[in-house]
Design a protein that fits this description.
20% of the residues lie in helices and 28% in strands. By secondary structure, it is α+β, with helices and mostly antiparallel strands. It folds into three domains: 53 residues, Structural Genomics Hypothetical 15.5 Kd Protein In mrcA-pckA Intergenic Region, Chain A (Roll), CATH 3.10.290.10; 88 residues, Alpha-Beta Plaits (2-Layer Sandwich); 81 residues, Alpha-L RNA-binding motif (Alpha-Beta Plaits, 2-Layer Sandwich). The strands form four sheets. Strands 7, 8, 9, 10, 13, 14, 15, 16 and 17 form a nine-stranded mixed sheet that branches. Strands 3-2-5-6 form a four-stranded antiparallel sheet, covered by helices on one side. The chain has a two-stranded antiparallel ribbon with strand order 1-4. Strand 2 and strand 3 form a beta hairpin. The longest helix has 12 residues. The radius of gyration is 23 Å and the shape is elongated.
Length: 266
């Protein structure tokens, strides 16, 4: 009876492929967030070694050729930017209608960044852009929370009772929502508007606008000034800058934590 050839004592054991889910590989390459990568897979825009891949498939990021829209992925150094988004700008990486997007404000157009979460078209303020898919996953995943702080200008006189109703919860068509107010409201009779600050940790489409409409105070201006520990500061409208080392460390602690609170898209 023949015996299988014995392995040389000096030979290395065969390497098992380190398979990863395709959405993780795509996000790590800085193409988009994992959530958007799942959409790319559903649309049949991802291939592995020339074969169209499906959602749930895995690949070896070292040896397999993963491509999106025919372009092979290349890993880039992780980058972190913030933008003071002007009103009217679309929070997306690409707009099929060719409207102005948040990426148009990044000075180096060679960077492959994507926005983490969304601000609606009429909302201004802080947008985080990165190619760190793991960080985006933490921020966007429903199991994590982080505070979003907004400066609000609403039509009419918003009373302390209105702010109390917001904090206790307003019933919307997609469920009850609670918005915490910080500081006092300031009414300006000259323009019939009230300015105040709201903080939220859950994320729903046009959440603040819809809640204030229920109270009869439509939003005139909405500006996001804080995302977790990241603050808009004195960054001018339409300006973008790379995060400093302190800001990056704070974000990486969120990305690398094993449990507890992270962040949730708002």
């Amino acid at each position: 009876m023949s015996r299988p050839p014995s392995r040389s004592p000096n030979s290395a054991p065969e390497r098992k492929p380190a398979l990863q889910r395709l959405q993780k590989i795509i996000a790590a390459a800085g193409v988009c967030s994992r959530r958007h990568a799942e959409d790319l897979l559903r649309a049949g825009r991802v291939t592995v070694n020339g074969e169209v891949a499906t959602l749930g498939a895995s690949a070896d990021p070292v040896h397999d050729v993963v491509a999106v829209d025919g372009e092979p992925l290349e890993r880039q150094p992780l980058r972190y930017w913030m933008l003071n988004k002007p009103r009217g700008v679309i929070t997306t990486s690409h707009d099929p209608e060719e409207r102005q997007t948040v990426l148009d404000f990044i000075p180096d157009q060679r960077l492959r960044l994507f926005p983490v979460g969304r601000l609606d078209r009429e909302t201004e303020g802080l947008v985080l852009l990165t190619n760190d898919g793991a960080l985006a996953q933490k921020i966007l995943h429903p199991s994590h929370e982080t505070e979003r702080e907004y400066r609000v200008t609403a039509r009419g006189r918003v009373t302390p009772e209105d702010l109390q109703r917001l904090s206790e919860g307003i019933e919307l068509e997609d469920g009850r929502t609670a918005l915490a107010s910080t500081g006092s409201a300031r009414y300006d009779a000259r323009v019939d508007a009230t300015r105040f600050t709201l903080t939220l940790v859950e994320g729903r489409k046009r959440q603040i606008r819809r809640a204030l409409e229920v109270l009869g105070h439509p939003v005139m201006r909405l500006l996001r000034v804080r995302l977790g520990s990241l603050e808009l500061g004195r960054l001018r409208k339409g300006e973008a800058r790379e995060l400093n080392s302190r800001e990056r460390r704070a974000l990486l602690r969120i990305r690398d934590e094993k449990g507890g609170k992270g962040a949730k898209d708002a």
